[in-house]
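Posting this for the archive.
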Amino acid sequence: MQNVKIIRMTNKDVDEVFELEKLIHPEHHWSKNSFYNELANNLALYFIIQNEAGKIIAYIGFWQIFEEAHITTLAVHPDYRGLQLAQILLIKMLEECYKNMVKYITLEVRESNYPAISLYEKFLFESIGMRKNYYQDNNENALIMFTQNIWYDKFKNNFNSIKENINKVLITYD
């Protein structure tokens, strides 16, 4: 695995993120304006991962509303899947949540997206319900996943274990 860099997404990154978004979701993807609106939203935080060449290969977005965070998007370039980049993004997000005194995290995920569900379960997300016909492209249901309080020892110990066991990738933060 090469060295990667995690940085806060800015407006200058939107064109490249949009191209990655279209690659991953060819028919029903976010618009450029959606990303610009998210970056202008005071509740939202977005981070990207760049490879050594400076190419954006993954991103995550989430909102922080009082004691709760909601993951809005998480994507990894198909050529870079299986390299723990989604885990690295979740670690970064959780570090931000701890800094900002967030207690709970929630998200929706396609019920057929087993790799994502498995990843979230590794981070102790639990399915607490379903949104029927949530996805516009095929009316697929979404699982609603939620964490217990991230300050509880069980969650913190699991989080620290994941951080310690992640492959030794050189990560720099800006």
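The chain has a mean pLDDT of 92. The first helix runs from residue 14 to 24.
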